[in-house]
Design brief:
Rossmann fold; single chain; Dna Ligase, domain 1; 3 domains; alpha+beta; 32% helix
Length: 344
Amino acid sequence: MKIEIITTPNDQLKESGFGSLKACKSVLGSIQNMGHNVTLTVCETIKDLEEVVKRAPDLAVLAVKYLSHENEDDIWLSEYFSQQGINYTGSSRDVLKFDSNKVLAKSLLKNKGISTANYFMAIPGQYKCEADLPFSFPLFLKPIDAANGNGIDDQSFVENFSAYESKVLSLNNQYNLPVLVEEYLDGREFTVSIIKNTDGDLIASAVEIVPPESTNGLRILGAQVKTDDSEEMKKIEDDKIKSRVIALAIDAFTILGARDFGRIDIKTNKDGDCFFMEANLVPGMTFGSSYFPKACEVAEEIPYGKVVELILAQGLGRIPSPVPPVNLINADGKVSSVLLPPVL
C-alpha cells in the first residue's frame, strides 16, 4: 500500500500530536518494516497539502491535527483530506474538537452520565473573593486546550484565593483564553491507550502514572516532569481498579465518537472513584517515552512496531478492495471483460 505520514514543523506546537520529526521517523521505520511504500512529508503550506492529494496515497497517517498559519485559520487535516477523498487515520474534525478543548469533552461526557471532576471556567478578575467561587479549595488550574503538561506545574494546585488569582492571571496571559479550574482530585493518575482492531473490538491498555514528588511535596504531572521523563508508568495490579478505569475509558472513547485509536486520561479521588480528565486523539508516538505506545507495552506487552501496525489497521481496512473484471457476452456471442469501479 502507498502510505504517506503527514506532519508539520510542530516542535513548538502546544497541542497533542505524534511528536517531533524524530517520533514521526520512528513511525516511518515501523511502517517500512511492514512492507508498505511509505514516505514522510512535512507540510508547511496549503500547496504542500495539494501535492499530497495529487500523489493520492492509499492512506494518509495524520501525525498532527492541523496546519497552523499565523493570522489565518488553521487547516484541519482530517477535514481537508476528507473533502479531497483521501483516506486518513484517526478521528474526524468534529471529534478532534474534544481533544483540543477539554471543557467540550467534559461537558459532553458529563451530560452522558460519565463522571468528571467538577469544573468551571475563569478569567482574571471574574471572581472577587473566595466566597464567590463555584466550589471551595483546593483547586487545580490548567489551560483549556494545551497538551503535554503545558501550563501545569506546582502552582496549578491552589489552596487559597491569592494563589488562585495568580495562576489564573499567568495562564490567561500565556494562552489568551479562559482558564479551566477543576476540583482537585487527591487520588491516583491513569492513562488508557485504546485501539480499534480490524474486527471492531477495542484493545484497551491501562497503566498508572506516578509523577515524582516535588520539593513542595506534590506529585504534579506537568510539562517539566514529562520533558524530564521522570514519571513512572506502572502496571495496574488491582483488578477492580483496572476494570473500572478501562470501562470508563472505553465509555468516554465511544461517546466522544473517536475513530481508530486514542488515549483517555483518568484520575481517582482518595476513595478510588474514577473520573474522566481528558482525551488525546492524536497521541504522542515518541519511541521509548510517549504514553500511548508505552502503555501498550507495559500493560499488554505490545512492542512499538506492533502498536504502529495496530493503529494503521482500521485505516488500511478502509481501502477499497480491487474489483475483479466481469465477463459479459456480446450480441455476437463473444465474451469480453469489463472492469467495474470499486464501491466506496
